[in-house]
Amino acid sequence: MGLTKKQKSLKRWTKQKWRTASGKKSSETGEVYAPSKTISKLKSTKKGRSKLAAANKKKRAATKAGKQHAKHGLHKKKKR
Questions:
Q1: Which comes out higher in pLDDT, residue 67 or 1?
Q2: Residue 19: beta bridge partners?
Q3: Rounded distance between C-alpha atoms, residue 14 and residue 65, angstroms
Q4: Are the CB atoms for 22 and 38 separated by under 8 Å?
């Protein structure tokens, strides 16, 4: 019996190396967590760096408001 769609998704997700852009803990910096591959792509362009900065700003605001999750938009339309 094969894996279900949810199980396959979880398997893919766990293989990715998730981190913040600075490499420090999100609780210390207020940065968003994303796969290393995504962070590298964003940091390589000016538009990407501004998108990452905006996401971090939204994350910090949500954290300050006492929320665990922030709708920062980095993962929109991504197959995860």
A1: 67
A2: 34
A3: 29
A4: no
